C-alpha cells in the first residue's frame, strides 16, 4: 500500500503536513477528511523515487514516438484509456518509459486528467508533446493529437539518425588516419632516426626531415601537456556554454561557420516552422505556440527573434515583421510566412515550408559529406606523403655519398 504525503489546514486555519497509507489518492483524501483536516495538496510519495531511480537513463525520441502512436491506435480502436496504458506497460522495451507510463496510468486511475498526468513527467516528454496533448484533451481530438506528435517525434528521430549516419564514415576515416599517422610518427620514425644519427650529421639532414624529428620530440616531450590543456579548455568551454552569453556567442559562431553554417541555420528554421505549425494545427494558442517553438529551435539567436515576434503578436501587430527585421530567416521563407499570415493558412504553410527546407538541407548535408570524405583522405595522404619524403631524402643523400 503506497504512502501519500499531504499538506492540509486544520479548523483553526493552521497548515500541517503528514503521511497516510492508502490504496488510491481518493482514499487518501477521505482519510485526511476523517482527521478533520482540509487538504491543500496530496502527492504519492513514490513519484519522487521514480525520478531519482531512473535519473540517469534517457528515453529516446524513437521509444516515445512509438508509445504515443501505439496509444493512439489503441484509443482509436475503442480500448479504454486505463487498459491502453496497461498494454503499453507490457510492450514498451525501455524500462524508464515503462515506469513513467505505469505512473501515468496510476494518476489517471486516481482521477487526474491525461494531459496533467503527462505534464508531471516533463523530464521525459517535452513542451511540444505536453502542449499538443493538452490541446487534444481539451478539444476532444486526443487520438489525432497523439498521432500527430508521435509522427513528428518519429520524423525528428529519423532525421537525427540520418545526420549521425552520414557523419559516421568520415569521422571513422579521420580517426583511423590519425592513428596511422601517430603510429608512424612514434614507432617508424625512430628506426630511421637511429640509422641517420650513425651515418649523417644533423646539419646534413634535409630541412623536412629535421622538422619531422622535431615534431616527434615535441610530441613525446609535451604531448601529455597538450592533451591536458585541451581537456581543460574543453571543460572550460563546456562550462561557458551553460551560461546565457556563452550560448549566444556559440550559436552566433555556428551560423558563421563555412560550409555548415547555412545547414545549421536551415535546420533551426525548419524545426521552428514545423513545431510552430504543428502546435497551431492542434489548436494551441499562437502566443504559447511561439514560446514553445522559439525554445525548441536549438539556436538562441533565432529564439530571440521569435520572442520579439511574440511580443508583436501580443500587441496586435503582424508576426512576420520582427522575424524579417532579425535578418536570420531566409527571405523566401519570410515571404511565405507573410502571405500565409494574411490568408490565414499559417499552420499549413509552415509545415510545408519545413518539409521544403529539410529536403534542401538534406541535399546540402549529403553534398558536404561527399566532399568531406575525399578531403579527409587527401589530408591523411598529404601527412603520410610528407613523412615518407622526409625519411627517403636522407637515404638518397646516403646513396650519393656512397656512390661518390
- Per CATH, the superfamily of the largest domain is Type II secretion system (T2SS), domain F
CATH topology group of the largest domain: Receptor-associated Protein
Provide the CATH top-level class of the largest domain: Mainly Alpha
Sheet of most strands = 3 strands, antiparallel
DSSP, total strands: 3
The amount of helix comes to: over 70%
Instruction: Work out the oligomeric state of the chains in this entry.
Output: single chain
The low-pLDDT segments are 48-56
Describe the structure.
By secondary structure, this protein is mainly α. It folds into 3 domains: 3-44; 52-154, Receptor-associated Protein (Up-down Bundle), CATH 1.20.81; 169-404, Up-down Bundle (Receptor-associated Protein). Helices cover 76% and strands 5% of the residues. It contains 16 helices and 3 strands. Strands 2-1-3 form a 3-stranded antiparallel sheet. The longest helix has 58 residues, at 142-199. The relative contact order is 0.08.
Question: What are the main properties of this structure?
Answer:
Receptor-associated Protein, mainly alpha, 404 residues, 3 domains, 3-stranded antiparallel sheet
Short description:
The protein has 404 residues and is mostly helical.
Task: List the topology elements.
Elements: E1 3-9, E2 15-21, H1 25-34, E3 38-44, H2 46-53, H3 61-76, H4 81-91, H5 95-109, H6 114-119, H7 127-138, H8 142-199, H9 207-241, H10 244-255, H11 261-281, H12 286-295, H13 300-314, H14 320-326, H15 331-343, H16 346-403
Antiparallel strand pairs: 1-2, 1-3
Amino acid at each position: 500500500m503506497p504512502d501519500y504525503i499531504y499538506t492540509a489546514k486544520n479548523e483553526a486555519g493552521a497548515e500541517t503536513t503528514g503521511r497516510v497509507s492508502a490504496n488510491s489518492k481518493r482514499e487518501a483524501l477521505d482519510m485526511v477528511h476523517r482527521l478533520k483536516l482540509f487538504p491543500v495538496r496530496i502527492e504519492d510519495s513514490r513519484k519522487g523515487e521514480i525520478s531519482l531511480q531512473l535519473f540517469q537513463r534517457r528515453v529516446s525520441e524513437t521509444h516515445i514516438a512509438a508509445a504515443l502512436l501505439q496509444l493512439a491506435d489503441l484509443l482509436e480502436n475503442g480500448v479504454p484509456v486505463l487498459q491502453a496504458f496497461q498494454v503499453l506497460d507490457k510492450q514498451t522495451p525501455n524500462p524508464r518509459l515503462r515506469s513513467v507510463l505505469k505512473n501515468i496510468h496510476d494518476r489517471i486511475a486516481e482521477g487526474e486528467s491525461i494531459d496533467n498526468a503527462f505534464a508531471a513527467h516533463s523530464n521525459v516528454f517535452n513542451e511540444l508533446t505536453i502542449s499538443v496533448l493538452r490541446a487534444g484533451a481539451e478539444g476532444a481530438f486526443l487520438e489525432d493529437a497523439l498521432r500527430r506528435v508521435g509522427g513528428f517525434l518519429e520524423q525528428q528521430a529519423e532525421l537525427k539518425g540520418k545526420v549521425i549516419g552520414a557523419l559516421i564514415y568520415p569521422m571513422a576515416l579521420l580517426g583511423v588516419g590519425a592513428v596511422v599517422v601517430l603510429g608512424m610518427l612514434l614507432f617508424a620514425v625512430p628506426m630511421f632516426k637511429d640509422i641517420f644519427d650513425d651515418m649523417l650529421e644533423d646539419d646534413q639532414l634535409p630541412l623536412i626531415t629535421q622538422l619531422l624529428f622535431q615534431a616527434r620530440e615535441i610530441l613525446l616531450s609535451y604531448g601529455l601537456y597538450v592533451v591536458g590543456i585541451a581537456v581543460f579548455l574543453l571543460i572550460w568551454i563546456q562550462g561557458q556554454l551553460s551560461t546565457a552569453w556563452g550560448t549566444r556567442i556559440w550559436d552566433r559562431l555556428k551560423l558563421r561557420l563555412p560550409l555548415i553554417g547555412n545547414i545549421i541555420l536551415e535546420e533551426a528554421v525548419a524545426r521552428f516552422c514545423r513545431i510552430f505549425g504543428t502546435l497551431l494545427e492542434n489548436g494551441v494558442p499562437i502566443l504559447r505556440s511561439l514560446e514553445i517553438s522559439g525554445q525548441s529551435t536549438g539556436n538562441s539567436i533565432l529564439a530571440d527573434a521569435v520572442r520579439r515576434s511574440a511580443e508583436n503578436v501580443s500587441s496586435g501587430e503582424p508576426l512576420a515583421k520582427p522575424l524579417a527585421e532579425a535578418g536570420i530567416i531566409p527571405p523566401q521563407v519570410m515571404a511565405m510566412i507573410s502571405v500565409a499570415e494574411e490568408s490565414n493558412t499559417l499552420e499549413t504553410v509552415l509545415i510545408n515550408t519545413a518539409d521544403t527546407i529539410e529536403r534542401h538541407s538534406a541535399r546540402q548535408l549529403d553534398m558536404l559529406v561527399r566532399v568531406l570524405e575525399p578531403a579527409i583522405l587527401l589530408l591523411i595522404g598529404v601527412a603520410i606523403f610528407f613523412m615518407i619524403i622526409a625519411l627517403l631524402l636522407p637515404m638518397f643523400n646516403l646513396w650519393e655519398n656512397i656512390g661518390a
